[in-house]
What we know:
The complex is a heterodimer.
Chain A: E1 4-7, E2 10-14, E3 19-25, E4 32-37, E5 43-49, E6 55-58, E7 61-66, E8 71-76, E9 85-92, E10 99-101, E11 105-110
Parallel strand pairs in A: 2-11
Antiparallel strand pairs in A: 1-3, 3-8, 4-5, 4-9, 6-7, 7-8, 9-10, 9-11
Chain B: E1 5-7, E2 10-13, E3 19-24, E4 31-37, E5 43-50, E6 53-57, E7 65-68, E8 75-79, E9 88-97, E10 101-104, E11 108-112
Amino acid sequence: ELKVEQNPLFLSMQEGKNYTIYCNYSTTSDRLYWYRQDPGKSLESLFVLLSNGAVKQEGRLMASLDTKARLSTLHITAAVHDLSATYFCAVLGANTDKLIFGTGTRLQVFP
Amino acid sequence: EPEVTQTPSHQVTQMGQEVILRCVPISNHLYFYWYRQILGQKVEFLVSFYNNEISEKSEIFDDQFSVERPDGSNFTLKIRSTKLEDSAMYFCASSEGSTYGYTFGSGTRLTVV
């Protein structure tokens, strides 16, 4: 059964600093998605990663996928307060139609 | 940008009552889903729906749950006899296919009292 783990669960970081969120998964997949969720709100799609070595960037966020290591990273560059939210990775297992979500990383950026 | 619309945004119901959560997926999407998120916890898959039938369901999606696409635009989740543990945020999602990603609605917060 596919399991998805994220770390850290909680991240408090100063504005201007860099950090990386990690997403590990347990079985083969080449479909991984990153979402952002603000408190009480929906899941906003950030990145769709579809193959080994995929790298995508949007503003201060960059996501990558290593299917051999079963690892995706979400890198934050020069954090700003507006990035404060919970970030989820979600993996689509092979031969299945369901996304398995990680536990989420709650990011808090302070001045 | 097209969006998935869910109604109501919040519903309070008594234990044992039936509830219907409604969703309008994006019009050209073919795949529809329900997920739920218990407060402060991770998002869990309930069911996927394609070509007017369930394509996959989780262990959570027992006989108390059903889904329907009654017309060309709506997609509903019915819980026949709600339990306290059904209290959660329920998200509808739709997709053109996994390559394109999944668009989630704004959610319905269900509170069972």
